[in-house]
Recover the amino acids of this structure.
């Protein structure tokens, strides 16, 4: 029997970035009043696979600060600031556009994906790749970074 050739994860990510679509095998579920919604798998992913893009509007740091003054706290959490090629950028994913990446929750202890910036048509895109094998029905998570997120102090290691 012939083995199926694995798609190169970076090429896979670029394909989905360019198409502006999300992959199959993922779905959004409501978890609870604290976490809200989350992204779950209905299929398995192998370590290294591209999972989804944190899709939104790429804006400058200056525009990010301007919007942060206007936005409600609930929208600000969808603004992802990052450094790329020595410059500060922000992805504003505050718009409810049905995309999956914006609904991925934080897990700073054992996240199952890791973020990577990939360049498509000269612009950075924040993509999540599996950092371990992921089974069907698992929640997709990544580490939001070192900020003092309020939920982190309220939970024990076993409940996130
Ligand atoms: C980018 S949104 C993620 C999607 C969000 N769960 C929703 O339903 O819209 C970030 C927000 O999700 C919630 N969140 C993310 N990770 C969490 C966690 N580990 N525990 C509790 N709440 C979390 C917090 O309310 C946070 O402000």
């Amino acid at each position: 029997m012939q083995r199926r050739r694995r798609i190169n994860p970076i090429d896979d990510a670029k394909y989905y970035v360019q198409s502006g679509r999300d992959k199959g095998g993922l779905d959004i579920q409501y978890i609870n009043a604290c976490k809200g919604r989350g992204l779950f798998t209905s299929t398995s992913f192998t370590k290294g696979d591209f999972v989804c893009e944190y899709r939104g509007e790429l804006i400058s740091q200056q525009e990010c600060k301007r919007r942060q003054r206007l936005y409600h706290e609930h929208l600000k959490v969808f603004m992802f600031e990052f450094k790329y090629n020595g410059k500060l950028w922000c992805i504003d994913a505050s718009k409810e556009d049905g995309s999956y990446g914006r609904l991925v929750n934080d897990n700073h202890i054992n996240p199952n994906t890791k973020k990577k910036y990939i360049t498509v048509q000269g612009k950075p895109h924040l993509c999540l790749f599996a950092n371990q094998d992921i089974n069907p029905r698992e929640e997709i998570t990544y580490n939001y970074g070192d900020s003092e997120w309020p939920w982190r102090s309220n939970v024990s290691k076993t409940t996130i």
